[in-house]
User: Fold this.
Amino acid sequence: MEGHKMPKKAYFIGIGGIGMSALAQYFKDQGSLVTGSDREASPVTELLEKKGIQVVIGQKAENVPEGTELIVYSDAVPEDNPERARARELNIPQFSYFAMLGQISLNQISTENIMTIAVAGTHGKTTTTGMLAKILHDAKLSPTAIIGSIVKDFGSNYLHGDSNMLIVEACEYKDHLLELSPIILVITNLEWDHTDYFPSLAALQQTFQKAIERVPESGAIVTDPSDKNIASLLTNSKAKVVDYTKEPAYTLNLPGEFNQNNARAAAAAARRALPTILDSQIADSLADFQGTWRRFEYKGKTANGADVYDDYAHHPTAVRETLKALRQKTKNKIIVAFHPHLYSRTRDLLDEFAVAFSDADRVLMAPIYAAREVDDGSISSEILAERIRATGVDASALDFDAIEKTLGEAGGGDTIMTMGAGDIYKLADALVSHK
Assistant:
């Protein structure tokens, strides 16, 4: 896509994906006629329709519109997808979501010289990206932002901006982070994750080291340089290393020390992007930040009066820290419905998962969300529940219907947390809507 030219017509396969939908909105803003498809309707496809982007439910070869100049596809869409096959027949250029982000970041498909700020790390990426976008938006810098969840402050996972600054949530899975060319790279923290791709922490660190070394001398790495998993990666950085832990504590609507660290990282990145920004501007923006969908989100009460929260946590550290913050909010019973994400992650981090639920009174374990993987019989939700029980926490492996029934019996004063990267959030919505 050389030539700094946006396509007149672009088609997005898997447009309901959280990143894909934000990128689709960006293309529409840049003047492209954008349409797309997804396997099922969702709150995200409804959001796109409201924004004037037509979405076809179901994926068939004939869906690809005549005159389409560019196909963007989700990583979840296989090569033999009928729409991708049709695009090959028509010789339409195809880019994965992250490859397309890379093209924009490299100024290959934009109308101006894009300056990219990438927010990476194992935990807190989405919240930090949302916070940073809000700070710079409130400071009238008018950034464009592509975020991994719907930010309540924007009512979207996409923020339209009129400047050349692009803030993007970056993912390390399959080295997608290396597609981007950021001037500022934020690394919130670093732990072994995506164990189906990275065989070890060292392999993951290698990807981050490459990303760090590619940031130019004029740029910055915003991170915690004392983090034992990050410190050694900074040795050959050409860019200035900015220590976000030197930021003060901020007044936030969001609970937990992990959100304080997200705020510090966002504040430090904002200072680097806009050196003239005032302390008071940062503090005011963060104090007003409303949070994002599926990040410690309060959903309401059940018919019996139990409070319901939902969270995307799917790594043991995120689970532990989220429940720790929830425990600080209540002394009453906490019931967690957890949807393990991927056989590989559950198996490889089993020891960490086993002790991550210590602040819960009861854990209801849904069947493992397989996503892209095949069950080889080495791990199950029953095995994880057994390991949790061994730590003294009441844990059961149940199907979704049994979990919903059990949660519906929770009493007034109890607190329910649905948790995981799968579709467990639908139970939270159902419990609140059934009142």
User: Anything to note?
Assistant: The mean pLDDT is 92. DSSP finds 14 helices and 18 strands in the chain. The chain has three domains: 9-102, 112-288, 297-433.
